[in-house]
Amino acid sequence: PGKTKEEKLKSNYIKEQGKKILEQEVDKEIVLKEQVESALKESVKGKGLYVISPGTNETQEYITKEASKRGITSIRVTHPQEPPAGKKRPQVFDMMINQKDVVEGDKLVKKAIEDIISIETSTVGSTTLDPAKFNDYVRDSINRDARSVKNSDSVIDGISSSSSTTQFSRIPVQVGINLKKPTYVFDKKFSRWFKFSPESKQFEPLEAGETPLLKSQPAFFGGKSLDKVERTALKELFELKSKQAGLGPVVKKQVIENE
User: Fold this and answer.
1) pLDDT tens digits for 6-34?
2) Among the listed residues 220, 97, 106, 104, the one whose alpha carbon sits nearest the alpha carbon of residue 155
């Protein structure tokens, strides 16, 4: 009582409380890291598969649910402005994006946006992508997505068109292409998966019924909502991986990466 706000903030008590809070946060990070490392070792009978699921929309909730049902670890990545993550499930870990890597993410996003605008302008004469309209929340979300792609070994987009898309997920898809990661999109119009070809610089269709084989750490993207066709396409990815991991017979043809 009687002290100014500045004097209170400089008091030894406040400094000690601040130190305790920092120590608690560090302890939480250490425990989380240990839990994730342990879960990754156990994921899919020791196969080490885990999925990176940026954001908290319906697509990400469905991805983590399907992965959890099969004992596959999910890293649910968020940024500080996002609402709380969805339902707690076994093998699902929430990780807040590290702010010190924002600059690196911005570089990946900047290059991807430049490429998308260039491609769309040269092919259809205009672009619907206007980064000047992005608010801080959108910028943080795209930055989170770009860094998630960088830490993945493949990119899966469950709702995009193989020819063009107006969804924000086209930005992490382009980041994946730029980083030379195996990149897939599901085109509902054709009910088929497409894979980006570095040679033709286009998405080329897989055979009818052919499903991408998940690698060790794919990053998933999609829209705010999913319909039945999109859900089935994503579900089949996990069913195939479970069978490939020895949990049942492999029925569908597999696309094996030789990278």
Assistant:
1) 665 566 666 666 555 555 544 444 444 55
2) 220
